[in-house]
Design a protein that fits this description.
Radius of gyration: 22 Å
Largest sheet: 7 strands, mixed
Oligomer: single chain
Bound molecules: pyridoxal-5'-phosphate
Structural class: alpha/beta
CATH superfamily of the largest domain: Type I PLP-dependent aspartate aminotransferase-like (Major domain)
CATH architecture of the largest domain: 3-Layer(aba) Sandwich
Length: 456
């Protein structure tokens, strides 16, 4: 496709979080996808090692999901949301409820992850208001976290992505993330223990009667696949129980098999009060996310009448959208029948081994993650953990070499991550790891050449 044509129309839209000029240095326009692969306008094949953006867990264009979608399209695609619900949505609630931990069975689907976070925050606020605790409105979450792009979800986020839109909404309080504390402690266990204590202390300092929620990603992608210990989550659970704080896991990214279980909550052995989900729930065939809350928390809402107004005062035009719920139901069925969370464990073991093997190049601090959701931190010196300096970041060079080698990864200046589809075959996993290794070596060459130029 002609570069001038792409530029003309790229200037009439934008690529998520990416400067347009950066995109135009290597404009990628895809025309086809199947399984773990995507093809661009030139016919070049790419290994999509992040399934879009941690979405296509069953690979692109999974035939069973397409079949379920077609069947639904031939029958019913929209129902009046103020009056009714579809049969397929009821089936979706039944199906999802069978794979969630504990009694997390109060479910509503939305158009994506941010909407499910917004809904969860509003759910807790109305819940406390109706349960005689009207001051429990504050939402606590971690610095560096990412919970979405809408205003509430963005205010709950600690990621620098929100800086241009500050001030955040009132009532959102941040706590240091384990990542920010790790160089103050000898072990990761100690770091996480202290981070969990800080959550407790922050709740105490803010006054427990004003804190309604602690919202946390079980594995934080935007900070570099930060993977706390199980103990961290148990400590959070205890603190939240003690102070009557609702624990929300943002599993938009971690949910649906990637960590080796349907939810990371199961991987870490801790059941939150609410799970927010998205991404992998659709495997990329339609926008969908879901709020999944403890059924007993919704009792008050279920007792709602015109007179008492206790029903959850929330909705979206495309909430509980039949076509989306048909897709999500089919995705969960495929995952369960094909035991894909188990597959994620086996695949993850192999990939992690290959990534650990890259340490021989002397630029890796750590390989992190669970199952097939894995991240690699890049440093200039793995003994002192000194990062690469600004202007010579290995991740920046890797962004280019990965595309040259036809592999899509999530790459930041100091780390990269992946979560290939759960249907990736052994051969494909080896191909992916080969491409990562080749791209890393080429990126190291670029960075070392730029050092020799600097020192010449
Ligand atoms: C952990 C997490 N929460 C929430 C979101 C927001 O989801 P969406 O982009 O579907 O609105 C994302 C998206 O990347 C995410 O990774």
């Amino acid at each position: 496709m002609d570069k001038a044509y792409i530029e003309k129309y790229i200037n009439r839209t934008f690529i998520d979080f990416m400067p347009g000029q950066e995109f135009m240095k290597y404009p990628v326009v895809f025309t086809q996808g199947k399984g773990v692969y995507l093809w661009d306008t030139e016919g070049k094949q790419y290994f999509d090692a992040i399934g879009g953006i941690f979405v296509a867990s069953l690979g692109h264009r999974h035939p069973r999901i397409i079949a379920a979608m077609k069947e639904q399209m031939d029958r019913l695609t929209m129902v009046p949301p103020l009056h009714s619900i579809s049969d397929v949505t009821l089936k979706f609630i039944e199906t999802l409820g069978k794979v969630t931990p504990g009694n997390l069975n109060y479910i509503k689907s939305f158009s994506g992850g941010s909407e499910s976070i917004e809904a969860a925050i509003k759910f807790t606020r109305q819940y406390f208001r109706q349960n005689g605790q009207p001051d429990k409105m504050k939402v606590l979450s971690n610095y560096l976290s990412y919970h979405g792009a809408t205003f509430g979800a963005m205010s709950a986020s600690g990621s620098p992505r929100k800086i241009k839109f500050e001030p955040q909404m009132p009532g959102f309080v941040k706590v240091y993330s384990p990542k920010q504390l790790r160089d103050d402690f000898v072990t990761w266990e100690e770091t996480c223990r202290y981070a969990a204590k800080l959550v407790r202390r922050t709740i105490e300092a803010e006054r427990p009667e004003t804190v309604g929620v602690f919202l946390v990603e079980p594995i934080c992608n935007t900070a570099g696949i930060i993977t706390p210990t199980e103990e961290y989550f148990h400590m959070l659970r205890d603190t939240c129980n003690e102070y009557g704080v609702i624990l929300i896991f943002d599993e938009v990214l971690t949910g649906f098999g990637k960590t080796g279980d349907m939810f990371a909550a199961q991987t870490f052995g801790v059941t939150p009060d609410i799970i927010c989900s998205g991404k992998g729930l659709s495997s990329g065939l339609i926008p969908v996310g879901a709020m999944i809350a403890r059924e007993d928390l919704a009792q008050g809402f279920n007792a709602g009448t015109e007179a008492n107004g206790q029903n959850f005062m929330h909705g979206h035009t495309f909430a509980n959208f039949p076509l989306a719920d048909a897709v999500a139901t089919a995705v969960i069925n495929v995952m369960t029948e094909e035991k894909l969370p188990e597959r994620a464990r086996a695949l993850g073991k192999y990939i992690r081994g290959r990534l650990e093997g890259l340490k021989k190049y002397g630029v890796i601090r750590e390989v992190r993650g669970k199952g097939i959701l894995l991240g690699v931190e890049l440093v200039e010196d793995p003994v002192t953990n000194r990062p690469f300096p600004e202007g010579r970041k290995l991740g920046t060079a890797l962004k280019r070499t990965a595309l040259d080698n036809g592999i899509i990864l999530r790459i930041d200046a100091d780390w990269f991550a992946m979560a290939p589809p759960l249907v990736t075959t052994d051969d494909q996993a080896a191909e992916m790891c080969d491409k990562i290794e080749a791209s890393l070596k080429q990126a190291m060459d670029i960075v070392s050449k730029s050092r020799s130029v600097l020192h010449a």
